User: Fold these one by one.
Assistant:
Number 1:
Amino acid sequence: MIVPTHIADRLLAECLGRPRAYQELGRLCDTVGGRVAGTEAAARGEEWGAGLMRAWGVPSVAFEEFPIRAWSRISLDARVTGPNGWALTAVSHGLTPEAADAEGPVVDIGHGDPEDFTAHAASLPGAMALCDEGAGAGRRKLHRMEKLALAQEYGASGMVMISSASGMLPRTGVCHRLGADIPAIGIAREDGLRIQRLLAAGGTVRLAVSMRNRLWDGSARNVIGEVPGSELPHEVVIAGAHLDSWDVAQGATDNGLGCAIVLEMARALAALGERPRRTLRFALWGAEETGIHGSRTHVERRADELDCIAGVMNFDMTGDPYGYWTPGRTEPGAMLRGLAEQLAPLGMQPDFSSGAGLHSDHQYFMLEGVPVVCLAARLEGEGGRYYHAAGDTFDKVSQAALCRAAAVGAHTLWALADAPERPFARLDTAQVRAMLEEAKLIDALRAEGYSGPALG
Ligand SMILES: [Zn+2]
């Protein structure tokens, strides 16, 4: 047994027998709803998280405030113009301009890969660049921000992204870190397919976009709770999830769900009669959606502490757990193998993956070589379909999966925090570089302006 029976019994009783977080997640979704970083709703969400940590016995709870470029939407009108035009079902992307009124012919650039832009270079100036969310076969999928940067570079007057989910579900998401120069919108798949059919038939389609948004210098907060370690309090194990969300829905699966898992684990571990050797830190990160600002700030402000972090678990749209993901570490080690065996009744299997990935709150820890230990999990049902769209509501959350993820996560945290020797060493710069090369992420990091040690 990796986690001793008397500890495991308590964790299972709390997470599966008398869980509390699912109900509290419902309260967040219904009374706060969408929580874009820097808005009053985000602040109410932060109070929700801090209040629960305190009520559930986490000994120390504090806010970690940091400045951000904040954004909120005011209005959008997007339509195909002309005698057979129609109003599009569309949403503005995050960090689009305060005011933009653009009109132009639509140019279909497929996936919006770099070579798609090159192939249409002559027709893009002044045009609306239409692309989907995907990438060509075998290509790394560019982030929305990378496609927008290319659209700006090629002189497009706007970027229009087709949702990959059907059901009139346009998707939002950040398109620029500070503020884009041109409007960018997500449109319903059905609208996008109609435009593509008209273009393929040889027609010209013109599109007009008029948007108003609010942009300001604001701030966001991480909520940080700690349970001090019994023997090695300066060594830390972190469990975090981003609390901010997009405003078009309730931020239920992305990512109130992850926050609920973190809070349930905090409650279960704080309720134990004993403490593990190392300190447990529970983090509800702010401003992930608008550029991973909260966890990056934490990493920057605690640079001298990074050697003392024994593990970081990130929960972002975490569904039913079945394995472990340890980026950059092909050998999961005896502890995770043992945990997978001990937790098999909860659905865990000896399923270990190690390919690096970006764009959530593990990113800046991973880039510093800090051990990242995440659950591999399946978001069952329709949760993934409503990503960044109006359907991301509380009814999509599976209580059973949430409880299992909290139980598995709490066991994993205990094991990381109480192991006599640290299960994972920090990766050095060369090892981080090799991990990023292996996953073909060097270009993606350069594109987002990252210039840390691993990129030399
Ligand atoms: Zn997320």
Note: The chain has 13 helices and 14 strands.
Number 2:
Amino acid sequence: MKMDMDKEKYTVIGGGISGLLITALLAAEGKQIDLIEKNTHCGGYLRNLGCGAPYGAHHIGLPDRGLLAGIIGGLGISDEGLLRSADTVRILSGQREYKLSLRLDEQCSQLCEIFPEEAEGLRAYFGFMTDFAEALYSDDDRQIKGYFVKLAGKSFRSFLEKYFSNEELIALLSFLGPSYGGVTDADSAFTFASLAATYGKGAYYMDCGALTEKLAEKAAGMENVNIMTGIQASRIRRDDESGRYTVYDGSGAVSEADKVIFAGSFRRILEEYCEHTGMNDTSFRKIFGMETGPSAYRYYFRTDVPLSRMEHIRLGADGYIMSTLESDECSVMLTCVTDSSQPQWDNERLISEISDTLCIGKELIHPVCVCSPSERENRTLNENGAVFGWKRNARNNLDANLIYSIDKKLPGIYVTGNWSATFGFFGCLYTANKLFCKLTADRRS
Ligand SMILES: Cc1cc2nc3c(=O)[nH]c(=O)nc-3n(C[C@H](O)[C@H](O)[C@H](O)COP(=O)(O)OP(=O)(O)OC[C@H]3O[C@@H](n4cnc5c(N)ncnc54)[C@H](O)[C@@H]3O)c2cc1C
């Protein structure tokens, strides 16, 4: 264990995008960091999860393109080539097909043309969503709370029914952008609306692989960062006298620090620690009682014909998102959101879906691999391999906010990323930056 007593020392548990980002940001401020990652490579969910498919290929929502550039720019990393605008999605509903923009303003006029009889409701709905999007990114907690109270306790469907009677329109809006984020009917209207608002300000394809590499390289090149791969943190203990934490793996102490940041699913380690210290606190009981999920199967295929990048969304009970990629090794990625431990579909059915959706012969489509929830859990220790950490229903939305203030009860303990109070790539950026500001009392907060 290397230690420089002059520098505040952190242990970051988890080397996904959130762990890498917070490590690089804090290290650039002169903090001493041990970054512990279970796998032999950093990257977490943004990295190839082992089945030979390309890593990255994410479709993300960013309320402001400058946000990524600003955060990584401070580390001397350019966002050039990382983002490509991707606002248009193709939606298949029965025999009908739509091409819609995810941008709120564009989507409103497109839908008014398709559903002229709902134009009044559409203008009211998009007016609400545009105001909500402004409030969400305004940093005005009172305004955000107001929307939270209006939306958190109801389903998105019941919210849409206030504006519309056309079932096709309700189905379209329910499955657009928000569902890209892997939400389900169990999630609250607040979650749906937050995703629609985020994607509605700008959707992009992100080269997550390149960003992960750049951040990992940056962190590895900083003399005050010690990246420890192949190590699985299993418990923490605090020395009452010094207030410092020791992090252990299965065979002993691996790191000692003033502060510990969890950048992966943290419940097992913190539950064990609270049991050990006899802490029996309501907010922890709430956090530990939160449900995880949903999860997703992702099926990867290669086609003998080149494809261009696009999202094809199938509505309906067996809905899915089929992403076509510009890659020779893997050109189709089909995502089915489910909590089931059994794969939903076999290859024959999947090939038939791909053939119908993309209008190419079945003989030109070849399976590459499947990325399952259990495989993801084994690799990353994220409970149930859940795509976005916690389930985003009304109760969890409330309880997740408690995660921001864990350090009030456990001084020096923080959480960032997918298992914090927000999720997805934007959530990782947002929570890592928010934590960085809190820890450095930076004006940017
Ligand atoms: C199939 C799928 C599709 C997705 N699609 C999108 C999308 O289109 N758009 C979008 O915005 N987001 C998407 N996401 C979500 C996005 O990938 C995640 O939000 C993001 O990658 C989470 O990053 P993270 O660093 O917070 O966590 P993770 O990537 O989960 O990283 C956590 C890291 O911590 C390590 N770790 C955990 N516990 C320990 C321990 N005890 N000791 C040591 N190491 C530990 C893990 O090995 C892992 O490397 C998708 C996710 C999946 C799975």
Note: The mean pLDDT is 91.
